[in-house]
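Re-running the complex after MR caught last week's input typo. The corrected sequence lines follow. Everything else is unchanged.
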Amino acid sequence: MSKIIVVTSGKGGVGKTTTSASFASGLAMRGHSAVVIDFDVGLRNLDLIMGCERRVVYDFVNVINGEATLRQALIKDKRLDNLSILPASQTRDKEALSKEGVGKVLDELRESFDYIVCDSPAGIERGALMALYYADEALVVTNPEVSSVRDSDRILGILGAKSKRAEEGAEPIREHLLVTRYSPQRVDQGEMLGVEDIRELLGIPLLGVVPESEAVLQASNAGVPVIHDSDSSSGQAYADAVARFLGEEVPMRFLEPEKKGFLKRIFGT
Amino acid sequence: MPAKAPPSRDLFDTAQQGEMPPAAELRGTVLPLPLLRVHEHDLAAVRRALESAVSGSSFFSHAPVVLDLSPLEEKMVPDFAALTALLRECRLIPVGVKEPPEAWREGILEAGLAIVEGGHEASPRTPSQTPPPAPSAPVPTPTLVVEQPVRSGQQIYARGGDLILLAAVNAGAEVIADGNIHVYAPLRGRALAGVQGNTSARIFVQTLEAELVAVAGVFRVFDEPGSNPCAGRSACIALRGEQLVIDELGRD
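Corrected-run output:
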């Protein structure tokens, strides 16, 4: 039975698209077939992060409107055979996402993929509501600051009230907390919320902590999801999170400030 | 007491069971109804007494009442139509008169009221100048219990009763009750108790980190650091006169 995972946060700029790209890639690297859908109609970014922007011909909205088939719109990832991307339209707006249309596309995708990762836009408007409506699981991406935590809390309320599962009274969406852009040094200095505070405020299980890292920006610019950079702390943290999502016990890392040893000081990280 | 029960409730019940519902159905019930004892023939005096008794609370708002006119002199037949109109203006719904003298029956039936036989008061009271309807008689309103966290942007209202919260009320959330509010978890959002004007409502909190608390419209915001005397601790919030008082729980 395939699973629909929404990557959501409420707030913008916290790392939803980075997470969607790396998480879907991570699932594919572990041998599952996966597709990642960009719900940010009008402001599409996922194709850039995945490095396939030149190959976008048809998009999600074309499929919803019956202007293209799913097969025509899906883009095969150039690194992973079992990963596909369904890009958003840059020329439409989010009103193009109808509940029935999105449902039909997701049903069709369920037939050929184990995991369907929905990259939600920021906000709580139509795009975000459609991205989470059909979800079975939710990755709530949160930065260690109060505004991000509050917006995540808002999104959790919406997951529990406005999703299909909530409306039908089915088993609720499984929620996972993913803290991104985490800087243990700044937490120690009292400039950022600690991961335990965030977990307590939001009251959902912690899936992973992704440390702030330059590797993320470099990966975005290069169009390679950061999970492929297995030397970087962020790449490793995403791999850990995927493993935990698949049921493995992996201890949390990157929660303490890095102690720079002599060699590290010379060679860098 | 064999008072008329509103039939609509029965209709709904049977309809929801999915069987063939009859168009109407009479059922025998014993419903508690407040008794309104009238001591004076002077309607203006009755109005004054009712207004002071009813206006302060929403509890008896649109409540069905049975009239007890036994203190009135039998020879002076009350104007039942005028009395009915007055009660309705005071947001009470008169349904009948308890054990009236034989001579009044015709007038009562003409005014569209029922004649109620039998029944006894819930608690014997010494006659006082303001006879409020028996306080233990009305149908108890159920308490609303919420086990999930109340998240930013969500609002929960316990209409007519108490509200009990077993998980956190997060910043940006709002919990409201006509009665008391209990939070057995951190309260980080807003809590408003007694919103229909119940000044004896209280808020009980295990960990007070609220943005705002209010009882019967008297509110307090915890804006400045140090403005919350019970920050991070348990608290009971109540009105004392016009003042909202916040005390730590378990402390005298």
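None of the earlier attempt is carried over here. The first strand of chain A starts at residue 3 and ends at 8. Residues 146-162 of chain A form the longest helix (17 residues).
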